[in-house]
Design brief:
Distance between the termini: 22 Å
Largest sheet: 7 strands, mixed
Shape: globular
Length: about 350
């Protein structure tokens, strides 16, 4: 394989510097350089992957053309990797979700929840805060403690958690509800912590991350998570378990409910680790179109972030809506800096020698 076939399909407008890199690689492949110089091969392959990342982060106006360039560069990288059996870096290995085996499944609201009542409560609650949102340019938001009280009242249940066990409310139908409040940004929400303060996991976590034993890390976290779920079911005599979210925007508040399928906890595994190897995306916890679940080394916890599609789902219930936004959301509390924010790569400065 001399890569000549794929070079015939090189997209127009790739960029002089980038095109030169690909042609140099093709020439070195043809001349047999890589057969005797694995260091150069690895360096050049890494550069190709960086170019792919450059297209992925591109904010060019013509999205379709950028997508074609990225797809072509990915195909080039794949052919080079297969020909020389280049071992992929840990962050390049992705394991897809198994269909239908997710721990979290978007579902109708818990049985017996009084929707008209919660709408009235939220209307009254927010009416006294609208000036605050307007002046501070904040999105609408429901505070955590009062959200649990709301759900207690509209389900005829009682609060059982107070932050110490897995569920906040036991409904009159004996279902367990963990209530959370998040703001939905343009494409993704801020985080909901699913588990933290691990007595079993925390001691070994740093060394496991250092050794890149990502499967072991997920197994430990899921063992802790399973114990946490089993304990609340047993001690509180619960039937179904739910994560029930008040999801806010600058104009609306939704209730979005997720059923916890405990039988699928055993199916959770590594989807992909990040480049720095200090956090892990997990597969089979939630459908990728609905959100992501991630383990953080520094925070020692599991976090859920929801995609915007959840508020567009048929099971999402709008419980409050303004006629028009009174804020642009620019004053929302800044989230913690992303633990592994990628530094933009200036491809023109990369060298293949």
């Amino acid at each position: 394989m001399d890569l000549s076939d794929i070079m015939k399909k090189i997209p127009k407008g790739l960029g002089t510097a980038k095109e030169k890199h690909f042609r140099n690689i093709t020439q070195r492949n043809r001349n047999g350089v890589y057969a005797s110089n694995s260091a150069t091969l690895k360096k050049n392959y890494s550069t190709v992957k960086k170019i792919v990342g450059d297209f992925e982060k591109s904010k060019a106006k013509n999205v379709d053309k950028t997508h074609l360039k990225k797809a072509w560069a990915e195909e080039f990288a794949s052919k080079l990797q297969k020909k020389y059996s280049i071992q992929k870096n840990h962050w390049e290995v992705t394991h897809e979700n198994d269909s239908g085996s997710h721990v979290l499944e978007i579902a109708p609201l818990p049985k017996g929840l009084d929707v008209p009542a919660i709408k009235e409560m939220i209307k009254s609650y927010l009416s006294h805060r609208l000036d605050f949102y307007k002046e501070t340019k904040r999105s609408l938001f429901i505070e955590d403690e009062i959200s649990e009280w709301f759900i207690e009242k509209v389900t005829g249940g009682q609060q059982i958690g107070k932050g110490h066990i897995a569920m906040d409310v036991k409904t009159k139908n004996n279902d367990g509800v963990d209530v959370f409040c998040i703001i939905m940004n343009k494409t993704e929400s801020n985080e909901k912590s699913l588990m933290q303060n691990f007595k079993k996991t925390g001691m070994d976590l740093d060394s496991l991350f250092k050794e890149q034993k990502f499967d072991d890390i997920v197994s430990l976290f899921m063992s802790n998570y399973q114990d946490k779920i089993d304990n609340v079911i047993k001690t509180r005599d619960l039937k179904n378990l739910y994560y029930l979210g008040f999801v806010s925007t600058v104009k609306e508040v939704f209730l979005v409910n997720f059923k916890i399928n405990t039988e699928h906890i055993k199916n959770v595994g590594v989807k992909q680790s990040t480049r720095q190897g200090t956090s892990i995306f997990m597969k089979n916890f939630i459908a990728p179109e609905l959100g992501t679940v991630k383990i953080y080394k520094s925070k020692k916890r599991i976090e859920l972030r929801l995609k915007k599609s959840v508020v567009e789902n048929e099971h999402a219930v709008r419980i409050y809506e303004l006629a028009k936004p009174i804020s642009d959301g620019s004053g929302d509390t800044e989230e913690e800096a992303q633990e592994e924010e990628e530094i933009p790569i200036d491809i023109s400065r990369l060298k293949l020698s």
